[in-house]
Amino acid sequence: MPPNGSCGLAQSRDCHQRTSVTRDQLTFPRPSPLREIQTSKRLHPQRFKYIPYRSMASQSQGIQQLLQAEKRAAEKVAEARKRKNRRLKQAKEEAQAEIEQYRLQREKEFKTKEAAALGSHGNSAVEVDKETIDKMSRIQSSYQQNKEAVLANLLKMVCDIKPEIHANYRVAG
């Protein structure tokens, strides 16, 4: 690297700011030995850094391994989500069953308390019905006994008219 801090590709600051090339990206792979022999007169070995030579097949194999690992990770995440959803569903069903059981228990307790409370009132309802029937029969018998007398008294008052001057009436004069 030159002492002025530039990347060596351009002399101006604008060029360095426009390109975002790092020093590591500027290294070149070592040429094959055959090419090095042919061009050994023109190349200076101090200019090149040694980068281990990898074939395209090994790089492709590494990428395939990464893709497979990513796929396995995605499958594990999907399986975990499925397990979580199953657990939530199961917990919800258990909660609903527990709520239903509690509701039935409380309903049963209410029915027993209601039966105990209405047991004493159930007899009074029967007594009220008996009293009502008894009163109705007395009213019917009283009606049958007094019907003729009441009708005779009503007709007598309507038919026998006695003209009298009312006590509040004054003669104008």
Question: Which terms would index this structure?
Answer:
67% helix; single chain; mainly alpha; 173 residues; elongated
Q: Can you walk through the features of this model?
A:
It is a single chain. The protein is 67% helix and 0% strand. The protein is mainly alpha-helical and 173 residues long. Among the domains are: 53 residues, no CATH class; 50 residues. The longest helix has 104 residues. It is elongated, with a radius of gyration of 57 Å. It starts with 12 loop residues before the first helix and ends in a 14-residue tail after the last helix. The relative contact order is 0.03.
Overall helicity: 55-70%
Any idea what the radius of gyration is?
Answer: 57 Å
Tally of DSSP β-strands = 0
Low-confidence stretches: 10-18, 36-41
Mean pLDDT: 78
Count of alpha and pi helical runs: 3
Largest sheet: none
Q: Which strand-content bin applies to the residues?
A: under 5%
Distance from N terminus to C terminus (CA atoms, Å) equals: 147 Å
> Which structural class matches the secondary elements?
mainly alpha
Region (Disordered): 1-45
Family: Belongs to the V-ATPase G subunit family.
Pfam families: V-ATPase_G
Subunit structure: V-ATPase is a heteromultimeric enzyme made up of two complexes: the ATP-hydrolytic V1 complex and the proton translocation V0 complex.
List the helices and strands and how they pair.
Layout (H helix, E strand, L loop, with lengths): L12 H6 L14 H6 L17 H104 L14
Pfam family, one: V-ATPase_G
GO biological process, one term: synaptic vesicle lumen acidification
Subunit structure: V-ATPase is a heteromultimeric enzyme made up of two complexes: the ATP-hydrolytic V1 complex and the proton translocation V0 complex.
